[in-house]
Every structure is written in C-alpha cells, then in structure tokens.
Write a structure and sequence with these properties.
Elements lengths: L1 H24 L7 E6 L2 E6 L32 E6 L2 E9 L5 E4 L3 E4 L5 H12 L8 E7 L4 E5 L6 E4 L6 H7 L11 E7 L4 E5 L1 H7 L13 E6 L2 H4 E6 L5 E4 L6 H7 L12 E4 L7 E3 L18 E4 L5 E5 L7 E4 L8 H7 L12 E6 L5 E6 L1 H6 L6 H9 L8 E3 L14 H18 L1
Parallel strand pairs: 8-12, 13-17, 18-22
Antiparallel strand pairs: 1-2, 3-4, 3-7, 5-6, 8-9, 10-11, 10-12, 13-14, 15-16, 15-17, 18-19, 20-21, 20-22
C-alpha cells in the first residue's frame, strides 16, 4: 500500500517538474499561471518571473533583442478544438473561459490565454502522459477573438484598430492611413504596452526610412502607439513681416532663408528684401541679411529650427502734389530702387493736359527739418527723355534722383503754385517720414 502511494507521489512530482520545464522554455505573460495537475484537480501557482520588455531600441553595438514568436497567442473567448491521435473519443471543442482557462479530460484545468498552439500542446502532453503512453494532442483555433491596438497622433485615421495577424508598428501606421506630417524626423514615436508599464522609444527616421526590424516591434493586444510632433521650436521657423502667409513653416532641409520665404507665400510688393533679418532663438539679436542676392548669402546665415526670419516693409516714400498729376499722393519707393522724377510721375499715373511742367518744384527737408524748395523745368525732362546729345544730357541732369520724403509738386497752367504751399499736407507727410527715417537710422 505504501509503495503504491509513493508511486503516485513520484508520478505527480514528475508531472510538476515536466510542466515547469515546458513553461520555462516559452514566452510567458507576467499574469500567467502554471497548472499543477494532481489527479483530476488543477491547482495554480503564480509565475515568479515576469516578462520584461526592453524600454529602448537595440543599438547596433549590442546583441539583437529576442523577438517574440509570430504565432498567434490564444485569448479568452477563442474557440479551440482538441484531438488526440488514435483516440477520437477525446475530440472536444471548447471556448477559453474569461479567466483564460480550459478544462480537458484527464488533464483538468489548464491556463491557455497568452499561449501559442505549441505551448498548449506541451501542457496537454504533460497531463495526458499519466493515462496514455506517448499522447499526440492536436490543437486548432476554430474562432478567434481579435485583439485591439490603438494609434494616436498625426495620422489620417487615429483610434482603435483590430489587431491583425503578426502586425508590427509599420502595419498599424499603414492601417491608420499613414502620417500627415511633412517631415518624419520631426516626430517622436512611442509604443506603450501593458497600461504604461513598458514603453518602446522608436526612432522614426530609422523605422520609416529603413524599416529597421529591431524597431518594427511585434504588436500585442492592448498596445498603444503614440506619435507626437516635436515642439515647434525644435522643428519650425517663423517668417514674419511682408510675406504672403506670416507664421510658422517647416525648417528648410538646407537652411535656406529663401526656401522659408517661399514656404511662407513669398514676399509682398512692399517687402524690403535687402533689409531682412534673422533672429536666432527667442530674444536673439537680429542679424541683417540681404535677400536680393541669394548667391552671396553666407553659410552662417542659414535658418535652423527656432529661428525667425523677418521681412520688413519698405517705408521709404516720396509725395506728388498739385493738380498737374493724375494721382497725387504718396508713392512708395521699392527696395534698392533709386527713383527719378520721371519714375515718380509714372507711378502717379502721368501728368494731366493742364500740367504746368515748366513751373514744377521739389521740396526737400533739410537735416534740421526745414523745407527747402527748388524750381525745376520738367518740360525739358519729358520732351528730351529719349533724346541724344546735349538735350539728353540736360534731361538727365534735370531728371534727378528723388530722396525719401521729397515732395514733387506739379501745378496746372490755370492755377500756379507758389512753392510748397499747395502741397502743405504732403509736406507734413514728408516731414513725418523724414523724422521717422532719421530716428530709425539712429
């Protein structure tokens, strides 16, 4: 009698040892339990070794990480079919219980959730060996409860997705329609697992550029992929001032200020490109840059993330007064243009038929702010602007360059003007402009 009891204990002990060795060879979730079969009862012992996943990607200088097998892992709610070769009476179909277990004849309760088919077969063999010699179980998954994974961030279709077979990070990104960012190096990617207990940090350039298998992790049920755009100070530049669309644009790959300007809609008609400036970071000292000659831009004036490109407005102005011009008023001076009298008249729409060109005048503000008026015969300018010889020399001398703040007054023959008196309002505007320019120069 005592020998029979001893024999039973030895058989149970052998089953336990064999079970432990089989489970130790597989990849076991931290929540899994090991059944210890004693007769028809199954007791559970918590697994003492939690499965630890790497928190950072594999370096090229280290050995590759062990990759989880791609076989399907059984879940609660799955339908299984179990057959034993040569014993059709033991064929059974069953559903995995909510606690992740099944009950099978001669084995009892077995925890299968999170196991592959091969791992379940190994467990069944251990229990069946007590009754049968060399049992050969066959396990099939008849119906699966598909898991869910989620993706958040700049993708076309964020949210929950049904987990496909052998899905990896790139499969999930593709299922979400791909990323909507222009530059993938300006995002961060994190794979969050087990409610935040484990986080994989993924380099988007290596993942999306080369499909690095060490970064293209195999997904598990409940995984969350978080894609975040980096701070604008790390990826964008600001373009402000006289541009089509002021604001943030993606930092140019080559650091070209002109590329940033084009991305912001280009410059407006009032832009003073020769007086542009670059500010490094926030609160940096403006660095002057002349964008009218891109071939001469030094390498040190390249734009980087966090920089600001400012395109100021051209505030230089001249004024046309009197009834002898079609559109009297302010004329803005384009950047790097030396305006002549003839050019200013063209900008004002030309002269009227009643214009008294012989009695025109230019009023210019002296350094002390006092107006100085000079008479000028514009008839010779207009008559001889295409002439040659001496007449051309006279016209060129009279067609002098205008200065910011000048007032060109052209009266009419019916009502002549005495100097700048008919252009008093224009003179006041010119004086304001002069004072503003002089203050800016200081």
């Amino acid at each position: 009698m005592r020998n029979k009891q001893a024999t039973r204990y030895m058989i149970a002990l052998g089953a336990v040892v064999s079970s432990q060795s089989v489970w130790a060879s597989g990849i076991v979730p931290s929540s899994a339990v090991i059944p210890i079969v004693l007769g028809q009862q199954a007791l559970r012992k918590p697994e003492s070794r939690p499965v630890l996943l790497p928190s950072t990607p594999v370096s090229k200088n280290t050995a590759p990480l062990p990759v989880a097998p791609t076989r399907y892992k059984v879940r609660s709610g799955d339908s299984l079919e179990i057959k034993i070769m040569g014993r059709p009476e033991l064929t059974q179909s069953m559903t995995v219980a909510p606690d992740g277990t099944i009950i099978y004849p001669y084995v009892g309760e077995v925890a299968v959730a999170g196991d592959s088919v091969m791992q379940i077969i190994s467990k069944l063999k251990i229990g069946l060996k007590r009754q049968f010699e060399n049992p050969q179980p066959i396990v099939s998954v008849l119906k699966r409860q598909m898991g869910e994974v989620s993706i958040l961030g700049p993708v076309k279709e964020p949210g929950k997705k049904e987990l496909g077979d052998d899905w990896r990070v790139l499969n999930l990104i593709a299922e979400a329609g791909g990323m909507t960012v222009e530059r993938t190096e300006f995002v961060t990617i994190r794979l969050v697992r087990r409610g935040g207990q484990v986080t994989f940090n993924v380099d988007p350039v290596q993942l999306l550029g080369s499909g690095d298998p060490n970064l293209n992790y195999l997904l598990e049920d409940g995984d969350l992929l978080v894609i975040q755009e980096r701070d604008k100070n790390e990826t964008m530049v600001q373009v402000l001032g006289e541009v089509g669309k002021p604001g943030y644009v993606v930092a140019p790959r080559d650091g070209s200020p002109l590329a940033a300007l084009a991305a912001a809609g280009g410059s407006s008609s009032k832009a003073a490109l020769s007086r542009a400036s670059i500010r490094r970071g926030s609160g940096g000292t403006p660095i002057p840059v002349d964008l009218t000659n891109p071939d001469r831009l030094p390498q040190s004036l390249q734009l980087g993330p966090g920089d600001t490109l400012v395109i100021p407005a051209n505030v230089s102005q001249v004024f046309l007064a009197g009834s002898g011009v079609i559109k009297p008023g302010m004329v803005e001076l384009p950047d790097k243009i030396q305006p002549t009298i003839y050019w200013a008249i063209q900008q004002a729409g030309g002269t009227t038929q009643e214009a008294d060109l012989k009695n025109a005048s230019i009023t210019r503000l002296a350094p002390n702010g006092a107006p100085i008026t000079e008479k000028i015969d514009l008839e010779k300018v207009m008559k001889n602007r295409t002439a040659q010889g001496k007449d051309a020399e006279v016209a060129a001398r009279l067609n002098r360059m205008l200065m910011p703040g000048d007032i060109l007054e052209i009266p009419t023959k019916r009502r002549r003007s005495g100097g700048f008196r008919l252009g008093f309002n224009e003179l006041a505007l010119g004086l304001s402009t002069f004072l503003m320019l002089r203050q800016a120069g200081n």
